[in-house]
């Protein structure tokens, strides 16, 4: 079986983060300003679980 390595996504390491702390704060403040959770999740392509985990910290 041939595997196309260019089609395989690289897994992110634990040290490589997709969002900086500043970006997370901006996302959470937009929620406080009244933006719906479902809209935020869709806009930033994150899961609801990730959003609520950030919010709990």
Mean of residue pLDDT values? 84
How helical, in percent, are the residues? 40-55%
Topology pattern, helix = H, strand = E: HHH
Rounded to the nearest angstrom, the radius of gyration is 15 Å
User: What's the tally of helices?
Assistant: 3
Strand content is under 5%
Structural class: mainly alpha
Task: Report on the biggest sheet.
Answer: none
| Annotation, overall tally of beta strands | 0
Low-confidence stretches: none
What general form does the structure show?
Answer: globular
Please describe what this structure looks like.
- It is a single chain.
- The protein is mainly α.
- The chain has a domain at 21-56.
- The chain contains three helices and no strands.
- It has helices at 21-32, 37-44, 48-56.
- The longest helix has 12 residues, at 21-32.
What descriptive keywords fit this protein?
about 55 residues; mainly alpha; 3 helices; about 0% strand; globular
List the helices and strands and how they pair.
Layout: H1 21-32, H2 37-44, H3 48-56
Short structural description:
With 57 residues, the chain is mainly α. It has helices at 21-32, 37-44, 48-56.
């Amino acid at each position: 079986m041939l595997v196309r390595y260019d089609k395989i996504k690289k897994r992110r390491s634990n040290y490589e983060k997709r969002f900086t702390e500043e970006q997370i704060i901006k996302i959470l403040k937009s929620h406080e300003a009244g933006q719906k959770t479902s809209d935020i999740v869709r806009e930033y392509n994150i899961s609801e679980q990730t959003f609520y985990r950030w919010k709990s910290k």
